[in-house]
Amino acid sequence: MGRPEKTLVDEESPAGALGAALRDLRHAAGLSQTELAALSGCAPATVGQVERARFLPSSQLVDAWVEQLPRSGRLWTLWEQAVIRSHRSRAANHNLG
User: Fold this and answer.
1) Beta-strand runs (E) in 5-83
2) Is CATH 1.10.260.40 the classification given to domain 14-96?
3) Whose C-alpha in 13, 36, 65, 68 is 20 to 30 A from the C-alpha of 29?
């Protein structure tokens, strides 16, 4: 399956929960990051960054993953929670500056 996967970050955060769910679903489907990336039209690094909560994917990418991965509808809820948290965080940082 290529290089060893890096460990996940805080699975308690919305982005971490999204990443952990994506990794679990990908493993359950028997896909590598490279294979899922090819099926969904993104770079393998993007899959890895999302799984490690380093990058928040677009809604189009989440849609592609939901189409490719069985029983993956929960990705939408997790993505929405991560987006809301990200917007709140940016707003709080903006108000501090």
Assistant:
1) none
2) yes
3) 13
